[in-house]
Amino acid sequence: MLIYFLNSIIFVLGLYCLIAKKHLVKKIIGMVIMEYAINLFIILIGYKDSGIPPIFLPNMELATFTQQSVDPLPQVLVLTSIVIGMSILALMVAISLRLYEKYKTFDMSEIRRLHG
Amino acid sequence: MEGMTFIVKTITRLLIAVIFSFGIYITVYGHLTPGGGFAGGIMLACGLILLTLAFGKKTALGKLSDFWASLLDNLGAFTFWSIAMLGYVGGYFFFNFLEKSDPFQIFSSGTVLVNNLAIAIKVFASIFAVFLALTIFGRFVSGLISTEDEE
Amino acid sequence: MLFLFYTLIVFCIIGSIIAIEARNILASVISAGVVGMGLSILFLFLGAPDIAITQVVVEIIVLIILIRSTVSLDNTAITKHRDTFAILSSLIFFGLFLVFAFMAFQGLPKFGEPLMSVSSQYLQNSVSETGASNIVMGILLDYRAYDTLGEATVIFTAILSAFVVLRAKGKKKREERDKIRVGIPGKDDLPETVAEIDEESESVSNI
Q: What interface predicted TM-score (ipTM) does this complex get?
């Protein structure tokens, strides 16, 4: 249980960075850290004690492999989510570049003040 | 002089072939060893991004321009989709219609190899295209930093 | 083994605290990269080499994109006026979140003993059915290829919207030229002040 709790502390740190910080790049970093925490959580759920990676090698028996291997399904989901996270980051960086071009600053409070 | 210093250029010239062949190896052997299309495609994009950073944008755009990058992106997605549609030959979407040989061989898994290649091409092209858009085209969106990068 | 996991997770926590609290944006971005690298070592020991490889490569790309596009543009830190209300409310919310998360974790399967009701089927049949000895790739591109198709769509859409957001040449000029050619009044031709509107209504009533 403790390892799940430590993992959720990483998630909370990312969420804090997303809410309380003013710099746009720091907000992006907070989003990235949240993403890491969620990926790690899904992998942790599928871990088996002293498990081997889910890769079948020629000198293995199928029965012992099925007994010992870790859960491959969360790894599949995380593999797609990592690449999606990177493309979402690219989109966020593009939007913040546009904001910088318009307001000449990365400060969120400045941007809000200039708006109204 | 465009790009980085002489040391970086020499080391890039030595390493670029190794990076590309490792990316292709990771992609092609994805169904036998750890790796796969995602990691291989991003490695290929890493090689081209290293080329861009070391030699400047002219060399990299000569190797793969933004038009061809977006075309390759579409091509990868279209290949993946058409393999999925070709599954209707055997009955359903994503049917593994190619012939399978013995396990632990390179042609052992039918469409998985072709899908891996398509995914690798798609990820490679799209990551390189978005890198170009963010760093090179994004820098003088409307004369933001116009004097630094333009020749 | 469990001690190694705890050490690496605490390393990641320290790295993310430095990434959040560092004044310099470049230091902050590099600390986020440190978190990703520690995470990839953790993935390697958790029995997921595919994820570890992908995480390392993605981390490098994320660092390059962030440094090259944003940090090199403007590296000034923000030092003035902290928003105390946001910090206080978020801290209270996070305390509540951690308490409820701790209650929810009691219902999960114990760490190290996963429920493998679906995955055991995949592990048994994947090598004979798909022929891929890497079970992850067998599931990703054969059993669950729908997921991958959706993922490819998401990447395509995100990259496309990044291109649209960053487009240098606007579409507006061409639209206005077309409007002039067709004869639709542009924005400047429409009345703006009250007096102009009055004039126009008068001229309409005169007709």
A: 0.90
